[in-house]
Amino acid sequence: MRIPLVGFAGADRWENPPLNLPNNFKNWIPTEFWPRSIYPETETVIVIGLPVQLPIVETAPSIFYHELYKTVNSLLDLKAYELSEILNQKGFASIYIPRDGYGDIDILLKNPLTFFSHRHAAYLSGLGSFGQNNVILTPEYGPRVRFTSIFTSAVIESDPIHGDDLCTRCLRCIDECPVNAIPPLPSSDKNVFPEIIDKISCAKRSKSLREKYTSPCGICIKVCPIGKDRKLFSRENMDIYNSSERFKKYKNAWNHVKSYGGHE
C-alpha cells in the first residue's frame, strides 16, 4: 500500500509502559485514552504514517500546505479503513481511528484534546521520540509526518523501541513559534519530557489561519533539523530559514506561493 512508516504496539504497552522509552514522562497517558478503554477487544495497535513534503511545508502558512495537509489526512483515513477491512475479512475484528478526532477548532478551544493520541501510539510502536514541540520526531522525516491508527484483535508482535531521543534541543521550534506556545526547556532536569504546549494559543492561531484558508501553521515542523528528508530536498543547511542573500531564491519562491490562494 506504499505506506512508508508502519509500527505495531501491543495494547498492553499503554497499561505497562516499556522501561526503555526515549523520553521520561511526568504523567503517563490517562486510562480513558488507552486503546482497550476505547475498543476493549484491542490486542494490537497498528500505526501508519505519511510524510508531508518539506518544500511545501516551507511555504506555510499557505494554500499549498493547506491542500497538502488535507490530502495526507484523506489518504491516512482511506488507508487505515482499508487495512481494518482487510483484517476483518481475514477474521480479525478491527476498526480504524480517524486521524483527527474533533469536529472543529472551536471544539478544541473548549476542550483541546481528542479521544485518542496517534502521537503516543507512534511513540509506543517505536516510530520515533517526542520533540520539544510535543510532536513525534522520526529518523526519516523528523516531525513532518501525519499518523493514524488501527485497533485490531489480531495478536501481532510489537516493534522494538530503541530508546533514542531524536530531539537535539536546538530550540528552533521554541524561538520560531509565532504565538509562543512551546514552553522553554526546564533547567532542573533536561531529561524530563517537555511541558505540554499551550494548546489554546496553538488552536487560536489555527482558527485564524483556517479563516484565511492557510491552515495549519506548520512553523515548528518546518524549522526542525531532524529527518533524512532534509538531505533529499537539499535542506541540510538550516541557514536557509535566516535572512541571507544566499537563499534569496527560496524566500522569493515561498513569498510567491504565500501571495495567492489565501488571505493575508
Number of domains: 1
Overall outline: globular
Please give the alpha-carbon distance between the first and last residues. Answer: 38 Å
- Mean pLDDT over all positions: 93
Beta-strand percent range? 5-15%
Quick synopsis:
By secondary structure, the chain is an alpha+beta fold. The protein has one domain (5-258). It is built from eleven helices and six strands.
Task: Describe this protein with a few key phrases.
four-stranded antiparallel beta sheet, two-stranded antiparallel sheet, 11 helices
General description of the model:
There is one protein chain. The protein is α+β, with helices and mostly antiparallel strands and 264 residues long. The protein has one domain. It has helices at residues 12-15, 35-38, 54-57, 63-89, 105-110, 118-124, 172-176, 199-210, 219-222, 229-232, 248-258; strands at 5-10, 44-51, 94-97, 129-130, 136-137, 145-152. The strands form two sheets. A four-stranded antiparallel beta sheet has the order 1-2-6-3, with helices on both faces. A hairpin with a 5-residue loop joins strand 4 and strand 5.
Question: Topology, pairings included?
Answer:
Elements: E1 5-10, H1 12-15, H2 35-38, E2 44-51, H3 54-57, H4 63-89, E3 94-97, H5 105-110, H6 118-124, E4 129-130, E5 136-137, E6 145-152, H7 172-176, H8 199-210, H9 219-222, H10 229-232, H11 248-258
Antiparallel strand pairs: 1-2, 2-6, 3-6, 4-5
